[in-house]
Amino acid sequence: MRRGQKSPSLLLITMITREQIEQVIHEKIEGTEIFLVDIIMNPGNNFHVHLDTFKGINIDECVEVSRYIVSKLDKEIEDYNLEVSSPGLDSSFKVKQQFEKNLGKQVEIIKKDGSKMKAKLLAFLVDSIDVEAMVKPLPPEKSRKAVPQMVTVVLDDIKTIKSVISFK
Asked: Which CATH superfamily groups domain 15-85?
C-alpha cells in the first residue's frame, strides 16, 4: 500500500442513525409545544419524522423542523430523503402525549387478541388506560342493553389505538 493511501479496513462508513436524527429534532423542538411521535427509517436512507402538538401541528412547523434537520445532517457526507409531517389521523398512538391529547375523546382499540372496542379515553396511566365503553351486562341481568362502564386496558394488550374520526 502506498503512503497516504487508506486501508480499506480503515475507511469510515458513515450512516445516519435514529439516535442522531432524534438528537437533532430534540435540539430544535426543546421549549416548544411540538413533540416527537416517531421516526421511521426505510431502506435507502428514507426518513419519515412524525411530529405533533396538542393543538395539531401545521405545515410551517414541519417545514421549520425539516430545514433544521437538513442543516445539521450534511447531505454531502451521506445522501438521504427526509419527510416531516404529522402522524395522520388514522395512525395508532405511539407516545404518551398522543394519549393525553385525546383524553375525553372517542378512540378505537384493537387488542392483540383481535377484540375491538370503541370507547371514550378517560385516563392514561403508566402501563394502562381507563376508557368508558358500552358493555352488555352479564346474565342474570334481565336488561341486556349495553351500559357505559369504566374499563382498564393494559397497554401491552393493545395492538392499535387511534382516534375515532366523527363528522357530526
From this structure: K homology (KH) domain (3.30.300.20)
